[in-house]
Amino acid sequence: MKGTITWNLWSFLFGFSLSFFLSFLTGEPQTVLLFSIIWGLIFFIFMYVIRFTLELILQPVQVEEIVEQPNLHQTSEEPIMETMKPDSEEIAHVIQQLMNEKGT
Asked: What are the φ and ψ backbone dihedral angles of 10, each rounded to 5 degrees?
């Protein structure tokens, strides 16, 4: 799930505070506290639903594994990159040949 339980607790606090401050002058204390707690729980559950929905929407795309086709031209069991990896002597030889061609 996206986020943590802290988001739910903050939303509970927001719902409780909003309900409490909007109704504490008009009602009795017990009723105000009861309805504030109920609204806090509603906000808590609503945030849970939002987090769950975000997790479903923002899931990483599952990439299917690519099945490797056997290479008919490759005779060894080594990967292609390993067989094509030149060593430093071969690179030096190629560079030397290129420099000789430029000079003539």
From this structure: -65, -40
